[in-house]
Amino acid sequence: SSFAMYCCMLATGAWLRKNYEMAIFAVALSAIVGWPFSAALGIPMALDLIISQKRPLFFILWSLLSFTVISVPLVAVDSFYYGKVVLAPLNIVLYNVFGKGGPELYGVEPWSYYFVNGFLNFNCVFVLALAAIPLIELEILLETVIAKMGRGYSWPQVFYATVLSYLGRSAGHVPGRAYRVATHPMLVWMVIFFTRPHKEERFLFPIYPLFCLSAAIALQVIPEVLPMLYGMFMYLLRAPKFLKRLSLSLLPWLPALVCVTYALLSVSRGCALYKGYHAPMDLYRKVSSAPLLSQVESLEEVNLCVGKEWYRFPCSFFLPNKKWKLQFIRSEFRGQLPQPYSPHRNGTWTIPEHMNDMNIEETSRYIEIERCHFLVDLDLPQAVATSREPRYALDEETWEVVASFPFLNSERSQKFFRSFYIPWLSNSRTSYADYVLLRNKHSL
Questions:
Q1: What are the residues facing 123 on neighbouring strands?
Q2: What tens digit of pLDDT does each residue of 70-107 get?
Q3: Rounded to whole angstroms, how far apart are CA atoms 247 and 355?
Q4: What is the dihedral of CA 68, 71, 73, 77, to 10 degrees?
Q5: CB 283 within 8 A of CB 376
Q6: Contact at 8 Å (CB) between 328 and 365?
Q7: Which of 167, 188, 239, 430 has the highest CB neighbour count under 10 A?
Q8: Closest Cα to residue 188, out of 46, 396, 360?
Q9: What is the rounded CA–CA span in Å between residue 112 and residue 129?
Q10: Which residues, 6 or more positions from 210, have their beta carbon under 8 angstroms from its beta carbon?
Q11: Could you tell me how far CA 241 lies from the centroid of its own chain?
């Protein structure tokens, strides 16, 4: 998703500079090497090139050339590591679009999910990005109407001329065409992904640059649209002219106001994320500390276990050395957990056993908790203990707390203050639980 984001930014920049060859290549690179669904970002560009500019052969030629140049080395590398001919993007599409399972396999979210996440990550910029497309269309409409009315057209003539100009069929210049091409990839992406039941924040990554671009376009269009709107409404409402002058005098300060607001909210959001969720990173760094390593020098293999916290394990680089193994124990999560590749030579050629494409729990992933030397867990005070998720930190006969770090208890924290950090206020309105590293007293 991040690679697709970079390619999207490159494609959009190339398109706006009329470097169409690079734009087509960047979209193809994003779809083939990164994420195949990111090809949707190229739909408005393709339509503009084929329909508006009437260059279908140019588009087809460069699309085929880009596909060939990118796919040949990609297939060669993937086929070497998988031991058979593989086109990875095709497999992704076949599984996600034509697979047996539905979106409920990996969870569904409400329609508001992306709007909430978009605001949390981009705050006022996200609001402006959403407003950009209707503002562009409003500017095209108002410019056309005012131009025709200034020539003495009757209302039926104004309406007819506006429709033709709006559809891009008039002989004159079509306002906003460049803005449309720049913002419509974001619209296409939102229409496709915002309506899917299964939602993940990473699915927004490819259009993150487009949020910024669309917000900038909105700031450009607002000073152009407001005077026209003010002129029409002031005339109809007979409002005092000083209100118009006062309102328009504030417009030059709008970009500065947006930048300051965005910067403050972004810093506040970053502080809230670090303060609330940095515990796993601190804890896994603790695993490599000298006192802890000295306790396991005589062991040939050290089992570091995770239960419900399996998805917060950063990566194997946080383990001290090869004798440390990440192991899973049973929890209330009933889906399929990850499985490492075979450690033998050409291990990526082997299709692992105990795998399925329906996200069904595979019990072969688990080890008995008695074999765990260390355990990572989040101890929530309000959690109801179950047979699969007991409160391990309270079992002092078996477990000793080696390290503990504060972790945001979202259920006992106010939504706004857990989302944005406000000095002197957030601490009293948020609650924290213990993110603990436990040592098994019976095995060490």
A1: none
A2: 999 999 999 999 989 999 999 999 888 887 776 678 88
A3: 63
A4: -160
A5: yes
A6: yes
A7: 430
A8: 46
A9: 16
A10: 8, 12, 129, 182, 183, 185, 186, 189
A11: 46
Q: What single letter denotes the amino acid at residue 58?
A: F
Other beta carbons within 10 angstroms of residue 122's beta carbon come to 21
- Tell whether the model's pLDDT for residue 162 goes beyond 80: no
Residues 14-68 pLDDT 10s:
998 999 999 999 999 999 999 999 999 999 999 999 998 999 999 999 999 999 9
- Which uninterrupted H or E stretch holds 306? strand 302-306
- Facing residues of 401 across strands? 438
Task: Establish how many alpha carbons lie within 13 A of residue 103's alpha carbon, considering only the half-sphere containing its beta carbon.
Answer: 10
Mention every residue, 6+ apart, whose C-beta is less than 8 A from residue 71.
32, 87
How many residues can be counted in the chain?
Answer: 444
DSSP output for 67-130: HHHHHHHHHHHHHHHHTS---HHHHHHHHHHHSSS-GGGG----TTHHHHHHHHHHHHHHHHHH
Distance between CA atoms of 138 and 5, rounded to whole angstroms? 29
- d(C-alpha 71, C-alpha 76), whole Å: 8
- Evaluate if pTM is beyond 0.85: yes
Cβ–Cβ under 8 Å, residues 193 and 155: no
Taking the C-alpha atoms of residue 172 and residue 59, their distance in angstroms, rounded to an integer, is 25
Classify the phi-psi angles of 54: left when phi > 0, otherwise alpha if psi is within -120 to 50, otherwise beta.
left
Task: Compute the distance between CA of residue 4 and CA of residue 34 in angstroms, rounded to an integer.
Answer: 6
| Cβ count near 276 (within 10 Å) | 20
* Nearest of 310, 316, 326, 443 to residue 373 by alpha carbon: 443
DSSP for 152-175, please give it: T--HHHHHHHHHHHHTT-SSS--T
Q: What is the DSSP string of 232-262?
A: HHHHHHT--HHHHHHHHHHGGGHHHHHHHHH
- Provide the pLDDT for residue 366: 97
Task: Choose among 181, 133, 131, 212: nearest CA to 12.
Answer: 181
Contact yes or no for 362/356 (Cβ under 8 A): yes
CA geometry: angle at 296 spanning 378 and 344, to 5°?
90
Alpha-carbon distances of 291 from 98, 275, 396, 441, rounded to whole Å: 52, 26, 21, 16
Helices (H) and strands (E) in the chain, counts: 15, 5
